[in-house]
Design goal:
Chain lengths: ~325, ~325
């Protein structure tokens, strides 16, 4: 990634159906790393491959022009830049609810990570009241919501994270039943057995690799694994081998990858659900805000060593 | 496994609700190997763990007593023995259709393997007309039906098997579009790219390990992997590592383990489907019949080196 400076004219070209946006907050997400990979296999899922010369895409908040009126706030997909000219199809939603809600939340709890947690648990994961839920990367953008949504569904919830402070956050701020620091567990299988003596109904997969391998040994019959990401594998030249997959057969497990984009239709229902809980103080959201576009690359890279504490946001321009 | 001889009285005990059966054909299936493993993880899926002193369970054809009348033919779960006393809940179905249909088919195409292929493709795998289907262990009890059912659904079908003769069977007898001998492919990924330049929609998983790893690179977006077995892994002390699981996320793949027992309710619909195609000669079934209970252990062991040619059956008593 490199910072490119240039001069632009803040004007939508004659006859264009595009929308001119001023980016206020940008999101830093692990999946962006994958957009930089060379395509593998026959197809990629999103068509959003990073190509030399283009810039990483992302969610945005901004002002705009045609269908919309000047000063409207929206969120959707844009590039990492101060101003963006985008087709209106890349705007996911107008922002109506601003009282008492930080605008940055639309890159997190009220945006892609929020819908990801919601769709992953309830649609892909078919979560039922009272089930036993494990989530990895549990203090991250999606994980902290997975845990809180599952608690609101009367589930038993355990999360793993990569530091003592993050584990404290899980237990003391997000209301998880238990949490553990995976870096301090010499045997992940033993750790999971300790927290799930009766096994796991739903594992919300964010990391892959060794964690997934240990989870497979501890899943319950007809367990579900909604797979949102495998962050531990993205930077490896040779990914780790997962050896316990036969448990998918033995235990009739359903493991399913999914992308937020296929669940955008749930957004109104989701927004009602989450805004009401936010207002009642039953859900909280922790953000880690870096300031200035020039600090974006370091913030993105930091995700892969767990430097972020909560959802990583990039403040581009003051509201 | 050992052969145990003894004398029994052919009588249902006073007050018992059990049914006395004479076993005619027994089925040899890879999953039976798993029943002999020590439990792994927190739970097993079936509760059918092999314990010292008990005998392997299996499908049967037999005569019987109370609810049923003497001479009725049935199929269901029994042990490997000449006569069985079983709760009637272990009888899956009375056998009504015998004209022109070998009784042994009720351990295969008209029994567990048949329903497994049917439910796996159409229920778990959500197969659609015209999709691209790959099946491993393709000449086996389940695989040969997967390919034929998919061809009846106007799909493009490729199978892998472990010998030239088996591959010939796929193409010349079962009507697969293509087939290959996985033992002669130095690069399974390249082989799959050759047969699926546009990728695989449904992979019917019977083997696991290296084949699964190569398949993951070649799946299409929103592909499905109904997982019926992972025979290549059952006898390994340390299973092979599967490294390409991140494709489940990238491509939004759904992989799901399943057992025949959860789809027994489909049996009447399935039977109508398969009997009509059998009568019209649009489906064929290849069996490999061993004779005599004493030859059962060798027949079972043979499955793991691919010694069987088609569905392995054990003839216990002449009809």
């Amino acid at each position: 990634m490199e910072i490119v400076e240039g001069t632009i004219t803040l004007k939508v070209p004659e006859g264009s159906k595009e929308v001119l946006l001023k980016n206020l907050y940008l999101s830093c997400d692990p999946f962006m790393r994958n957009l930089m990979n060379k395509p593998q296999g026959t197809e990629t899922s999103s068509g959003l491959n990073y190509t030399s010369g283009s810039v990483s895409r992302n969610e945005l908040l901004k002002f705009l022009i045609p269908d919309y009126k000047y000063g409207d706030l929206v969120w959707g997909l844009t590039k990492w830049e101060e101003y963006s000219l985008v087709p209106s199809s890349q705007i996911i939603s107008k922002i109506q609810h601003t009282d008492g809600v930080p605008l940055s939340y639309y890159t997190g709890i009220l945006g892609m990570p929020g819908v990801t947690a919601y769709a992953g648990l309830f649609e892909v994961g078919s979560l039922q009241k009272g089930e036993r839920v494990f989530v990895s990367a549990a203090s991250g953008a999606v994980g902290q919501l997975v845990g809180q949504f599952a608690k609101l569904t009367d589930c038993y919830v355990v999360g793993s994270a990569g530091s003592k402070d993050k584990v404290d956050l899980l237990k003391n701020k997000f209301g998880f039943d238990e949490g553990f620091n995976y870096k301090e567990e010499p045997d992940l299988n033993a750790a999971l057995k300790r927290y799930f003596p009766e096994g796991i109904d739903v594992y919300f997969e964010n990391v892959g690799g060794k964690t997934l391998d240990a989870v497979l040994l501890n899943m319950r019959v007809q367990g579900r694994i909604p797979a949102c990401g495998m962050i531990s594998q993205y930077n490896l030249t040779q990914p780790e081998g997962v050896t316990n997959l036969a448990n998918i057969v033995y235990k009739k497990i359903r493991m399913q990858g999914f992308h937020f984009f296929d669940y955008v239709n749930l957004y109104p229902k989701f927004l009602e659900f989450v805004l009401s809980h936010l207002k009642e103080g039953k859900i909280v959201y922790v953000e880690d805000i870096a300031e200035g576009l020039e600090n974006g690359p370091a913030a993105l890279v930091g995700l892969f060593s767990g430097r972020n504490f909560g959802k990583q946001v990039l403040l581009v321009a003051p509201e």
